[in-house]
Every structure is written in structure tokens, then in C-alpha cells.
Write the C-alpha cells for this entry.
Amino acid sequence: MALTLDHVSKRFGSFTAVNDLSITIPEKEMFGFLGANGAGKTTTFRMILGLMDANEGTITWNGSKIDYSTSSQIGYLPEERGLYPKLKIKDQLIYLARLRGMGKQAALNELKMWLERFNVPEYIDKKVEELSKGNQQKIQFIAAVLHKPKLLILDEPFSGLDPVNVETLKSAVTELRDSGSTIVFSSHRMEHVEELCENLCIMHHGKPVVHGSLREIKKSFGKKNVTIHADFDLSFLENQEEVVKFKKTAQGVHLQINNEEMAQKILNDINGKGFIRKFELEEPSLNDIFIEKVGASYE
């Protein structure tokens, strides 16, 4: 049940929100969409869900168009909250699950399981407006997964959550993937995508600038990071031709170098100058790749 976008574009008047996007999202996998605000992520999701028509291109899931006949197999967590503030959680979540073909008792059992899982069983009879923003996000997530969707689309699922709740939600999402759901989520938090996704797409002004497996993207980027903690001055490394970026830290320096071989040269350069507490060669982070490809810091 792969999800395929083939040369998809969306324009609003003279503004192009998504520009010739072609990607295939494998089934039973977690796929990340990265991009700054306004990159086209939410518009792409709305087209996948059929809430918006593409101007060009086709979107298919398991070879067919997504429409009302497939809605019982799809879950969607929108970035903006979409629950009724004055309704009790039990009433509206069971109602939403029944719209997707679930029986009342099955929906109630599933809801109780999820509230227990998120350590908030007492929320079942509360109104949404009585909850904090983070807890509203949990309820919104439960609404998206209650009917056990095969395709789950999460738009900025971790925004507004404290670190403990981020971890709780991450483990729930990972479990859903392991049980066979295909999960597509967007984020501008690189570390979440790096931790959870095998494949990803970085979007910028509606176009995919990087797309593929995380491992291959990092490999093809070429550059490496070096962290050095030492008890002597390392500032002379800033002028080495193999050093692309140089940043002083409290314990030493953080460098970006052109390739792996350069690390040996740097190690030779600092050897014998004093005590080296740490010398670590790492893959570039997604953040490094994003900033280089998109050319600006994100937030």
C-alpha cells in the first residue's frame, strides 16, 4: 500500500505552494517531511487527504485515489486543533470513531486504552476546553488513531508538548508503525525526523530539495563533524583548509570537515600539543544538511 505522489503541483492564484513534487512513501514505514513554515508540507497533506485538489499530478494510495471510501483507513492529526471545546471527550471521540465505521463499544474500549496509555484515564468525561494545550494535543492524537488507521498523517505532532509527552507520543507512533501502519509526519524539528524516519523529504518553497533514505542522504552529503575537547587552545584549526565550519564550545571545538580522511590530518595536527579528552568523528546531522540545502536557519 505505497502512497505515491506523481508530479504534484498546487497553486493559489500566482503563488505556487507545491511545485512538481514526486515521491513514493513505502508502506509500514515512517516517512518525514521537513521544511520551514510555508515550505508546502500542510498543503501536501491536504492534497493527499483529498481536502484540496492538485492543479497538476496524481496522488494514489495502493493504486487508487483517496476519497470517502478510504477514509475509514486513514487518520489525520492537523497542526491546528480541530476538536469541539465544549463537548465531552468521550462523546466526541466515540462519534468520530463511529463516522469511520467503528462500533460504539469497540470505540469506547479503544479510547479507555489510549487514555490509560497516556496516564489520563480521568479525562474521559472532561470537556476539551478544560485541558491544557499539551493534553488537548494528546486527545487530538487519540482521535486520529482510535479507528486503527492503515495510513496515519501527522502534521507537526510534537509541537506544544513538553519533553515527557514528546517521548510518550514518539513511543506510541513507533508502536503503530510496528503494528503495520504507514505513518507520514511533518516537523521542523530535525532530531525527531532523524530518530524516527528511514526516509524523508526536505521541502523548500514547495519543492523537494532533498529526498530519499536518511542513510543515503547523509552519505552523499560527504561532510563530517568532528568534536574535540582538549586542555589547550584549538583556535588554530579554524584556518585549516579542510575545515569548512568552526565553532568554539565550552569544552573545545566543533568542526565540520570536507571528508573523513581530513579527520586523521587534524588528529595529527593536535597530537602532542596537550591533553585531548575527546576526539569524535560523526555523521553530519540532519540540521547541518537542512541548513546547507535550504540556506537559512529554521524555526
Remarks:
- The two ends are 33 Å apart (CA to CA).
- The chain has a mean pLDDT of 90.
